[in-house]
Specification:
Blueprint lengths: L2 E5 L2 E5 L11 E11 L1 H7 L12 E8 L10 E4 L2 E2 L5 H4 L10 E2 L12 E5 L3 E3 L6 H4 L2 H13 L7 E5 L3 H11 L4 E5 L3 H9 L4 E2 L9 E6 L4 H10 E9 L11 H6 L3 E4 L5 H9 L9 E6 L3 H8 L6 E5 L7
Parallel strand pairs: 10-11, 10-13, 11-12, 13-14, 14-15, 16-17
Antiparallel strand pairs: 1-2, 3-4, 3-8, 3-17, 4-5, 5-9, 6-7
Length: 324
């Protein structure tokens, strides 16, 4: 089968990869659409050592499931973390923090920039008929955006700033706007601002962010500069939610964190169910972020496009995607 291959920070397109064989309680999924995200781009730059097929945002169709043949033909998205089920974190119902986990296209497991992918059946979540493939491919990052609301309480009286209006920042903004909070998004590029305008979400130029104003700041830039901006913007006893994984070390004045009693919250993956429900009810529209679709054979051009400053969502169309 054809697949994007990452090794030693170099990308290649291969056609000599064998179709994976699903193990016990696993299914083989034919990929329809895959999304390129910031983590994929960071892996190429050496965020951490990974060799194999990248990609973890996808929608596809189950084509083989010997343990659950009734699920054949089901349209699905996939929870990316595969847990052992036995460690302390798994037993504490925290499988996304499993000590032995693999992660699709990120950690010791081939990902979705290919024709077929394997995942445990329990990781594969059915997509409702009313949700298009174009929307469903956003379930994983949308779930990550919603995780913020699982970790902290956000009310209509809160003043909230999202720093970074890229792929994830836009989804965070759409989900936070549902709380009725006083929301602003720091947006650098016109295309980002245009999407926010379409969603009736207020944006602010990064040079105009007031100091010590917001009681909740979400940092979604992936940059050291973004963290510095978040620290400047948050008020005393406020909360900074970190949605970024940084490629470099971040120098932090922890004395000021202590003196101002700032709460730092790390936030990563989220549950898929709430994300799918939002899409089913049309309460968010992630398809506004789609800039372009590329065929799998043009994956290198797609990744180059996604790497451009200000780029929003770029999709790889693998096979049989259904659009609305």
């Amino acid at each position: 089968m054809q697949a994007v291959w990452l090794e030693n920070n170099a990308l290649s397109l291969r056609d000599d990869i064998s179709v994976p064989e699903p193990g016990k309680s696993e299914a083989l999924v034919k990929v329809r659409l895959a999304g390129i995200c910031g983590t994929d781009l960071a892996l190429i730059k050496g965020y951490h050592s990974f060799s194999g097929i990248p990609g973890h945002e996808f929608v596809g169709e189950i084509v083989r499931a010997s343990d659950r043949p009734e699920r054949m033909g089901e349209r699905v998205v996939g929870e990316i973390n595969v847990a052992c089920g036995r460690c302390a974190h798994c037993l504490a119902n925290m499988p996304r923090h499993c000590e032995q986990r693999t992660a699709l296209g990120v950690l010791n497991r081939n990902g979705a920039f290919t024709e077929y992918v394997c995942l445990p059946l329990e990781n594969l979540i059915s997509v409702p008929a009313g949700v298009s493939d174009e929307a469903a491919v956003f379930v994983e990052p949308l779930a990550a955006a919603l995780e913020i609301r699982e970790q902290i309480t956000i009310e209509s009286s809160d003043f909230v700033l999202v720093i970074g209006a890229g792929r994830l920042g836009q989804l965070i903004a759409q989900t936070l706007s549902l709380t009725g909070c006083n929301l602003q998004v720091s947006a650098r590029y016109k295309n980002q601002r245009d999407v926010l305008d379409t969603c009736n979400i207020s944006w602010i130029d990064e040079d105009s962010i007031p100091a010590s104003y917001y009681n909740i700041v979400v940092e979604a830039t992936g940059s050291v500069v973004g963290f510095a901006a978040a620290r400047k913007a948050v008020r005393a006893r406020g909360t900074i939610v970190l949605k970024s994984t940084y490629n470099e070390q971040v120098l932090v004045n922890f004395s000021s964190i202590v003196v101002d009693e700032i709460t730092l919250v790390g936030s990563r993956c989220g549950a898929f169910g709430p994300a799918i429900n939002l899409l089913k009810k049309s309460q968010v529209d992630p398809t506004l972020l789609i800039e372009r679709r590329y065929a799998l054979k043009d994956a290198r051009a797609a990744l180059a496009h996604a790497s451009q400053p200000g780029a929003l969502k770029v999709l790889l169309q693998v096979a049989g995607a259904k659009f609305e």
